[in-house]
Write a structure and sequence with these properties.
The strands form 7 sheets. A 4-stranded antiparallel sheet has the order 1-28-27-26. Strand 3 and strand 4 form a beta hairpin. The protein is mainly beta. It is built from 7 helices and 28 strands.
Length: 459
């Protein structure tokens, strides 16, 4: 190789080098992809003289395609061609094990092969259509009111304008319970709540009164006064009744005694729109339009101080639901500017989880048979959502209401939920049926067609 070619290949050691620029590495050929048989043939053919063509033909390898074909035939032939054995194949089957060497536990292992593998749990079927639709004209479209409740005697109380109606879920009968003063055009019903005995109903009015009615006699037995604005939230705890008002206070009443008012709670700075007693009766949750949630216990109620002041919501807190399987777990829902369902440990006041539902949260109901939570929503989806707790995986969306779903109540057997919306309809959903739901008594005439709307309405 001459000097020019060497300089071209390896570079000039004495040539000036550009500062900051590395000299390229020399080229090193890679022969891993070369076909040596073809290369040998080309070399012999290139170096052979005209008189040595026969010799070249004898020593030359076959063409590339012929070579591959020969190699493949040797691999696949039974005797390997030229006496060679077949590659990667057994000459005979593996010998049988000696007598008495079988594994006696083989059946046990085979039977338990899938025992340690957890099968993927599938969600139960949730009916997407309501079982019944009732026409509810004059249902007031007001987020801060509580206008429906389902009592232990299987009767639904619903407030429509100035009147409270009772609908018997067993028979389908409807009767009028009470009506506000027809001479007072500004008065109307703002809340209803069944007593735990199933015999009495508390009715709150826009005229700041709380009326106690005996359902069996359709007679008012008491009037509780003390608030100076409408009473939009009610919660019974035995003979104790908590009332929340637009005057920003929560009052405690003992309906057995003449001086019924036992305490006044003043921690809220705006209207109180949510009240719920824990199933144990030891704690009370109150939510207000001031975006605050307060937890009270029997000791703090007596001196008017709250146990916890929870301010994580960014809108009014109306939707409240105590967990039926964990005594200190409370779910709360926020309004349009918040849209979240939050879970609280009410013993410590700790926020356990928060889920953005992307819609105004109007009401919450826990499933008594499964670890599930049902939420109803307003702007902008107007649907009900069923969530798996604690993962908060959405199991189903129940649609059909054409306006925000303001209220929900649950049947005594815990299988059915009724929703009341601003579209002036009540819809009954069989969304909480447990595994024995087929044994539970179904609602009569459960169809949801136009004939039901005409037959069962509150006009």
């Amino acid at each position: 190789m001459d000097a020019g070619r060497m300089l071209h290949r390896f570079g000039d050691e004495n040539a000036p080098k550009t500062p900051g620029k590395a000299r390229p590495d020399r080229f090193i050929p890679n022969r891993s992809a070369l076909d040596l048989d073809i290369a040998h043939y080309n070399l012999v053919k290139e170096n052979a003289n005209a008189n040595d063509l026969d010799l070249a033909a004898e020593v030359a390898s076959p063409s590339k395609e012929e070579y591959k074909k020969q190699l493949a035939s040797n691999f696949l032939s039974q005797d390997g061609g030229a006496g060679n054995a077949k590659i990667l194949a057994f000459k005979s089957k593996a010998p049988e094990p000696p007598a008495g060497m079988e594994n006696s536990a083989r059946g046990v292992y085979t039977g338990n092969a899938g025992a340690g593998v957890k099968s993927k749990k599938t969600f139960r079927h949730v009916p997407s259509a309501p079982e019944r639709i009732l026409d509810a004209p004059e249902l007031i479209d007001d987020y801060y009111l509580n206008l429906i409740d389902w009592g232990s005697t299987n009767q639904v109380a619903v407030a429509l304008g100035c009147t409270v109606y009772l609908w018997n879920a067993d028979s389908g009968d409807i009767q009028q319970l009470c009506q506000t003063d027809p001479n007072n055009s500004d008065d109307y019903v703002t809340s209803v709540q069944w007593g735990q005995d199933g015999k009495h109903i508390a009715v709150g009015t826009n005229d700041a009164e709380v009326q106690i009615w005996d359902v069996s006699r359709l007679k008012q037995v008491r009037t509780l006064k003390g608030h100076n604005a409408r009473v939009g939230a009610l919660a019974w705890n035995g003979t104790q009744l908590a009332t929340g008002s637009r005057d920003n206070t929560v009052m405690m009443h003992d309906v057995r005694i003449r001086e019924h008012r036992t305490a006044t709670l003043t921690s809220h700075s705006q209207e109180v729109c949510g009240l719920k007693w824990a199933p144990s009766g030891n704690q009370l949750a109150s939510g207000g339009n001031d975006n605050l949630l307060h937890i009270w216990d029997q000791n703090s109620i007596g001196n008017g101080t709250h146990l916890h002041r929870l301010d994580a919501h960014q809108a009014a807190v109306k939707a409240l639901a105590w967990c039926p399987f964990q005594s200190n777990l409370l779910a709360s829902g926020g309004g349009t500017a918040d849209r979240c369902i939050k879970f609280w440990n009410t013993n410590t006041g700790a926020l356990l989880n928060s889920v953005d539902t992307h819609s105004q949260v109007c009401s919450l109901q826990w499933n008594k048979h499964e670890r599930e939570l049902l939420s109803s929503h307003g702007y902008s989806q107007n649907q009900l959502c069923l969530w798996k707790y604690p993962t908060m995986t959405k199991m189903a969306e129940l649609t059909g209401h054409s306006a925000r779903v303001l209220h929900m109540a649950q049947s005594p057997d815990g299988t059915t939920v009724v929703s009341a919306a601003a579209d002036e309809t009540l819809r009954f959903w069989k969304c909480f049926s447990d595994s024995d739901a087929g044994k539970a008594k179904k609602l009569k005439d459960g169809a949801s067609d136009s004939s039901v709307l005409r037959r069962f309405n509150f006009r």
